[in-house]
Amino acid sequence: MMLRFFVWRLASAVPVVAIIAVIAFGLLHLTPGDPARIVLGENATAENLAAVRTAMGLDLPLPVQFGHWLWGILHGDLGVSMISRAPVSRLIGQRIGPTVALALCAMTVTIAVALPLGVLAAWKRGALVDRAVLALSVLGFSVPVFVLGYVLIGTFAVDLRWFAAQGYRSPADGLVPFLRHMTLPAITLASTYVALIARMTRASMVEVLDEDYIRTARAKGLAEPRVLFRHALRNAAVPIITVVGSGFAMMVSGVVITESVFNIPGIGRLVVDSVLSRDYALIQALILLTGVLYVVINLLIDLAYALTDPRIRYQ
Amino acid sequence: MFELHRRRLLALTAGLATATFGFAAVPEASAAEKTLTAVMSGNLKALDPSISTAQITRTHGFMVYDTLLGMDAQYRPQPQMADVTVSDDRLTYHFKLRDGLKWHDGTPVGAEDCIASLKRWSRYDAAASRLFEQVASLEATSPTSFDIKLSAPFGQILALLAKPSPIPPFMMPKRLAETPKGQQLPEQIGSGPFKFVAAEFRPGDKVVYVRNTDYVPRKEPASWTAGGKVVNVDKVVWQSMPDMQTTMNALQNGDVDFVEQVPLDLLPVIEAMPDVAVGKVRPLGMQVVARMNHTLPPFDNLDVRRAAMLVLDQEELMQAAIGDPKYYHLCTSIYGCTVPLASDAGKDWLFGAGRKEKARALLKASGYDGTPVVILQQTELDAFKPQPLLAAQRMREIGFNVEVQSMDWQTHLQRQYSRAPVAEGGWNMIFSAWGITGIWDPLASTVIDASASNQAWSGWPKDPELEKLRKAFSVETDPATQKTIAEKVQARVLEQVNYVPLGEYDILAAWNKRVANLPEGPLTLFWGATKKD
Predict the structure, then answer these.
(1) Mean pLDDT, residues B405-434 taken together
(2) Among A126, B205, B342, B404, whose Cα sits 20 to 30 Å from the Cα of B134?
(3) Contact B304, B298 (CB under 8 A)
(4) Domain span holding position A23
(5) How many domains does chain B contain in total?
(6) pTM of the predicted structure, to 2 decimals
(7) Does residue A67 lie in a domain region?
(8) B3 pLDDT exceeds 80?
């Protein structure tokens, strides 16, 4: 049953991803720019440009180019970069690790900070702490990521030298170097999501805390933390999980500013570079990857509902 | 129906994390290894320096590949991979390869490899193709020597073989040199002082070179691309950094050793860093140019072109783009302000009083009918971003009808190569910048190519007289006569408004003071550089 559910959900996403790919392919080829010029430099002669464009297959009709690309995809071949001639799968493989690591760390920070803050604000509704959490949320939404990034770098990397100012170290290099490079970007990226999820948690908890079964739990004499985290938060979790899940997908597909400020060689920068270079093969693959990522994350969100609410079952 | 167990979820998560982090692992550098980390002014994406005019690809080329001849700081061709002897009639050039030269794959460098490399070069470099029009034969005389025989003397042959720009004649194994036209080299195998590490190449992130331990430098001291290329570090890493503020933080923290080009507005910040030095490792800067489209009205009319040129003021334009006069230079020379061929020929077209009145009179006499002039403005590169706006203003003041169209650099490049009418995506005037190394003589300079052919740069001027002068320069063997011809070329370029030189700006680098002996050159070079622990 589980397998059938997985396969059905994944199969239902294929037309969506295909439509995205067709639209993206069309738009890219209508945008001014030429990968042959990136290869040959801005002072290339028209004769050399024509030769390279022919070798790249760019003078073929668009439907033929799309057909070639689609044929490759159906055979599991994402193609090679038009600019560097490296296999697209290798280029994406080089970059996915840092981005996923950053997103996971940022989400860890987000959950560790936002959930307790949201619960606290709901529990002390209307009190000073509630207003403070709301004010913090507004601040989190308002301060641009790059501003926060530079402030953190200036203070904690350049002045205090506690953390690295830029770059990425894999966990395989050791936990300390990894955290030294990842802490500031994770906090920076998390800032917006902390604000979002803290507010979502608060709203959801406020609703649940007025329910009869919470009153009953308190009447039974349960300790307040148990009431809040065991009974209330679990029942308030479904919308929070939705936001956390889609937030993670957004983090992976939209980290370009954080990656640029902290010089993390991730997917976000690869997307920007490939668009600026008009590297069609790479852009197409990245669009596909993003589409599949959203499908998988949504699937995981659905599955996670079952973890928090035993009434939810998939058939 | 199924139930998801927490343990299964945790196991799945752990598996995903392992996969994620596993393939992101980077091998640890050896403790004793000396690595010089540089942030270059562009990202190396395309690797083939035998077809690309991109500066970063050319710099990569000089890391990995070597040339038969090098160019020294006095602009003289010098032996590099080969010694050359010239016959009395200047029709036969005999090249003898140095002993012990090896490709990076371990095979010996042979004459046939060099012949194939020269043929590849002639298919992509405009000046080389002119040389090859006069090559009668190119034949190996032994496994390590070959002859170039000419049908008529070609005075610039050695200068061309030593030129560092725009496409230098890099040598490579025959099997690579024979890569079909239009295709990039499948491997980076040269015989230069550094080896390219393909396994560690991450386009847009980093490029890694290691010292070529088989490389035997020449005995002479290094001078630009000539002389002994002695490498003093084990590894050079080009680290990409998308953000200049991040780069400056990394330089200050010692994460990077060298930044190839620093923005002038950040200079006060950089100069205040105690461990950082600022200077020029590339003494030749960039020339800003204005080009009119000679194929479309109104600039198909010489008087209209002259009127537009006369209202362009170098001082005003460089002040707007660069700011501090310490970092820009005004001059008439179309070859660069400080090169041997620099001259003042045609100075009155660019400097002097009363030019605006003369421009107004010329425009009136030209019969200009108010045809709109479309000037393209790219909005990404500061060095030539403000010029279109200022030029438009000055041109309007004398009666031009001007429209400035702003766009990103890629769109600008796309547009500037269009020969279509303005209404169909064409243009009338553009601004750009050329490295002095690519324009320092009449043959090397593609900007002034007046053949209107597909080998010419955007704007497509057609001037048979200028082409005749360029040809005369190419074949002339006497340096004094070459200089005279170059002056005539310059006078002709300005008189016909082939293009308008608008001054030169410096390229400043910054480096950590633990790095020393960075060599000067026509482009950034890494041999000779030392780094303290």
Answers:
(1) 92
(2) B342
(3) yes
(4) 1-83+278-294+310-315
(5) 3
(6) 0.86
(7) yes
(8) no
